[in-house]
Amino acid sequence: MGKTLYDKVFDLHTVRDLGGGQFQLFVGLHLFHEATSAQAFAMLDERSSGIAYPDRTVGTIDHVIPTGTVARPFSDLRAEALVSALEANCARRGLRYLSPARGEHGIVHVVGPEQGLTQPGITVACGDSHTATHGAFGALAFGIGTTQMRDVFATQTVIADRSRVRRIEITGALGLGVGAKDVILHIINTLGPTSGVGYALEFGGPVVDAMSMDERMTLCNMAVEAGSRVGYCNPDDTTVDYLRGRPFAPAGPALDRAVRWWRSLVSDPDARYDDRVVIDGSAIEPMVTWGTNLGQSTPVTGHVPHDDPADARRTAELAAAREFMGVTAGQPVSDVAVDVAFLGSCTNGRFSDFLAVAELLQRGEFRVAPGVRALAVPGSQKVREELVARGVDKVLEDAGFEFREPGCSLCIAINTDRLVGREVCVSSSNRNFRGRQGSPTGRTLIMSPASVAASAVRGHVADPREVFGLLEEL
């Protein structure tokens, strides 16, 4: 019986079997940011501990950094304190810091791949739940808590449970206007937001094989929203092409050797999976969440669901979500008006996400509807520079988007970008629970970048296929 990539990488990084289903794993790459690292560094100081592998430890700033201006000191005193602490810890301990001064900074799950730090066959840990993003490269990547961060700093190892492996195979081909974000929302809607608990999710099939690395990162980023800590894709030529020439990726003969090893890690044809799911990609439509968890979603052409008479608990959840969101059972989601539109985040804040939106906007004289506040926030400084170099920033600004400095921004709203009161935000980010975007009463609808742009233009939830004339090409 063959092995999955997950099992191969897990076995290669196992230091000890601790029994009871727990293992000590070596961490190939430890990424950290300002929002969760300060306490972990303080714990090291309390124990007079050093950093076990400084060359495998890389920091950036993303969560609290303002996107209106990066001038220091920041107006938010807490943000200034957290960033200053990270800079001081990196300098004192000799750690690599992806600095704004050098144009290297950005969202941790954007800059890791961008720099070529994320590679197939390694383990990646970070104090952030969306570390699953890096699994797009065939890495075993997972979020960790603060005490685990301390342990990785001090020992370069972490205690981990071994997951079962579920393969999700997406067959057929996606239709026009349907992207990776729609695929993962469809998966979560179909299987449920807790369906991945205890599983690592292997994404495969013709649809995934045809995806770019940016799209695969979107897919794996939201594996955690299905309840899984780990989502991954098998590395292939697309993976190698993405990594070639990046600062920390192998080059020359070293790349040739690495590629041979990466290919050996691909799940074997006779690999044993604990579960397999097949999803018809051609049946997936542009999706939108209407409620307060990622499972509460529907196609943009759909309706807010009615109660489920056979499931009292689900009925209660649906009723609570409808009340909070201010919608009614049977209501078309296209009736939901939009106050804020947000393009960005570690899910959809890469160059290709903004380019796709710009190309749609250039299909006609499209502008953001009156009364809609629209933000376009690149995922890194390098993404921003490329967008400016290609003139994408001007396309977005001419259409009415505010083109801002890089950061997590409105995705998590522990910076200066926040919803106000009961505002409704269509967002290309990854979470829609109450208070996620800064206001305890603010309402978040998760969509693809194309759907966000369409909804910003119409001023209500809208189908990008209809708004931008994509259906005419069928």
Index terms:
33% helix; Aconitase, domain 3; globular; five-stranded parallel sheet; 19 strands; 18% strand; alpha/beta
Plain-language structure description:
The protein has two domains: 5-275, 2-Layer Sandwich (Aconitase, domain 3); 289-473, Aconitase, domain 3. The strands form five sheets. A five-stranded parallel β-sheet has the order 5-4-3-6-7, sandwiched between helices. Strands 17-16-15-18-19 form a five-stranded parallel β-sheet. Strands 11-10-9-12 form a four-stranded parallel β-sheet. Strand 3, helix 2 (34-46) and strand 4 form a beta-alpha-beta unit. It is 33% helix and 18% strand. With 474 residues, the protein is of the alpha/beta class. It has 17 helices and 19 strands.
The CATH superfamily of the largest domain is known as: Aconitase, domain 3
Tally of distinct domains: 2
Oligomer: single chain
| Major β-sheet profile | 5 strands, parallel
Basic shape: globular
Structural class, from secondary structure content? alpha/beta
Question: Summed up, what is this model?
Answer:
This protein is an alpha/beta fold and 474 residues long.
Task: Explain the layout of strands and helices.
Layout: H1 5-12, E1 14-19, E2 22-26, E3 29-33, H2 34-46, E4 57-60, H3 77-93, E5 96-97, H4 108-114, E6 123-126, E7 140-143, H5 146-155, E8 157-161, E9 164-171, H6 180-191, E10 199-204, H7 206-209, H8 213-221, E11 230-233, H9 237-243, H10 253-264, E12 275-280, E13 287-289, E14 297-299, H11 312-325, E15 340-343, H12 345-348, H13 351-361, E16 373-376, H14 381-389, H15 392-398, E17 401-403, E18 424-427, E19 443-446, H16 449-458, H17 464-467
Parallel strand pairs: 3-4, 3-6, 4-5, 6-7, 9-10, 9-12, 10-11, 15-16, 15-18, 16-17, 18-19
Antiparallel strand pairs: 1-2, 2-8, 13-14
Helix pairs in contact: 2-3, 2-5, 6-8
